[in-house]
Structure formats: C-alpha cells, structure tokens
Amino acid sequence: MRVCLMIEGQEDVTWEQWLALAGACEEHGLEGMFRSDHYGPLMGMPERGSLDAWATLAALAARTSRIRLGTLVSPATFRHPSVLAKMVVTADHVSGGRVELGLGAGWHEGEHRAHGFEFPETPVRMERLAEQLEIVSRTWTEESFSFEGRHYQVQDLRALPKPVQRPRPTLLVGGGAGPKSLALAARWADEYNTVGVPLEELPERHGKLSEAWREAGRDPETARLSLMTTCVAGRDRAEVTERVGRVLTVTGSDDSVAEVIDARPNWLLGTVEQLAERLQALEAAGISRVMLQHLDHRDTEMVAVLGEVAATMGSAP
C-alpha cells in the first residue's frame, strides 16, 4: 500500500504551510503529496484563499527531493490542454521527474462563475475531459501531432521539451466508477482514483476498472485503483479525539466529535495500529494507493503519525 497526503489547498494554505507539509512528507516517509485544484474555498468561509495549484507544485518541486507531487484533480474547465501539459512538464523538469496529473471534468459551478470559467452541462464537460486527456497524453509522448476536436484543435504540435518521466508523468482520472470515466481512464490514464467509498463497494469498483482495461485492450492486471478519503490519526485515542475536534473547527461543522467517530465509516480514523489494519483491508479490496485527506493543514505532527502508519504497511522508503 502506497501512502500519500492530500491537502485541500483552497482553504487558506499559505506558502509557509505548504513548505512545512512537504517537508514533513519527506521527513516521515510518505510517498507523495497531492493537492486539490480550486481557486475558491469550498467550506463556506469566503475569507479563505488559494494559491494556484500548478504554480505551488512547481515551487515545491524545487524545494523537495523525494516525494511525488500532483493534483487531485485539475478541472478540464480551468486551462487549455496545451497550457496544462506545458505546466506539468515544467514541474516535471523542476522536480527531476516526480509529478503526476489528476484530471477531471470540473464540478463546482459557483467557482466557475466567479472566476469566469465556462461551466457547460455534464455531457459537454465530459467531452472536454476526453479531448484534454488525449491532447495532454499525446503532447507528452508523440514527436508531433494534429488534433481536431469539437472543443480543442492543435495543428502540427511539436511540444518540447518532453517530460523527464518516460513515457510520461502518471496520469490519473477521478470518478465514481461510472462507465464514461472508466472508459476514459482505460483509454488514456495510468490510475483511477475514487473518493470516500465504503470498503464493501471497493471490490466491485476494482472489478469494473479491470473490465474497462480489458475492453480497451490493456492488461487488467495493470489497472490501478486509488482511494482519496479523509483521515484523522493519532498515537492514542485521546489524540484522535482531539484532532477530530480540530477538523470540525476547520470545516465549520456542527457535528460533535462522538458523531463523527461513530457515524462516518468512510473516514479513516484511529491509532497507528487501527489505521494499518484499515489499510490492509483496503489493499485486500483492490486499492493500491491512498491519498489521505488532511483537513487541519496546520498540523504537521499528524503527518509524522501517518509516516508511522506507512512504515507499518512497508511503504515508507
């Protein structure tokens, strides 16, 4: 099981906090750090801000040496695919080959309206996602190509330099295991990421992913399924309880700590030993990597606890 941190960057994460989080991931053996790609807050607190995802990742690439860095996920609605492909390649060169791109259709209508991004109906956004996946992938891997789609066109595109990673940086597609997103992932991606799924549903999703890989003519054994889910970890129950309380403050939730602990089974809550047991169950259900959503981004000590979990799972370097 590969263990990564996932940070909601739109909730007022400062540059100094990004540096501290990345440094903690490096120090404590996590495989990587992913961040959301949003321009505005999503927890109902309009005073919170967001640094641009790819500018942040490129800067962190220059200040780290080991961890992998990526988005989970970049909306296809935010950037032209040629611009996005170039941003990722730039960060890939800065990092020496450690970046990954998660790409999705985009979902938050209010954010799009506020920032002047078009927000068409879901079928159109899925069309744009499909075209972006093809253009980005071919930009990274082909010497030159032309593309004529409904939404994007490129002519005799010879994009240099190519990525440091060969054949390309890891490309992830996120979704709820619906047929359209699975087919897109099977055609263009290396990994499929799903969010907050109960353990009992994961084997079915893994089976659907393997079948999509098979239908696309790819070896189903190479289909990788990852999970992004909220995590609160502590070295004992008191630490877990204290951290849950801080998460509720960060998110502005009216729930009690007891309600969260008892009624959110999809969250990973517990001590090092408890979380290691949960991750073993996830691995048995077909999950090869977890992106653990850490909502109290000021708390770098929890990253150290997650490092202990990763070491228990044998995934720390």
Structure in words:
By secondary structure, the protein is α/β, with parallel strands linked by helices. It has a domain of about 160 residues: Alpha-Beta Barrel (TIM Barrel), CATH 3.20.20.30. It is about 45% helix and about 20% strand. It contains eleven helices and twelve strands. The chain has an eight-stranded parallel barrel, surrounded by nine helices. A two-stranded antiparallel sheet has the order 6-7. α1 links the parallel β1 and β2. α5 packs parallel to α6 and α10 crosses α11. The radius of gyration is 19 Å and the shape is globular. It starts with a strand and ends with a helix. The model has no long low-confidence stretch (mean pLDDT about 95).
First-residue to last-residue Cα separation: 12 Å
Mean pLDDT, nearest integer? 96
Residue share in helices?
A: 40-55%
Structure classification? alpha/beta
What's the order of the H and E elements?
A: EHEHEEHEHHEEEHEHEHHEHEH
Report the top-level CATH class of the domain at 14-174.
Alpha Beta
Strands of the biggest beta sheet: in what spatial order? 1-2-3-5-8-9-10-12
Number of helices: 11
Share of β-strand residues: 15-25%
Task: Write a brief structural summary.
The protein has 317 residues and is an alpha/beta fold.
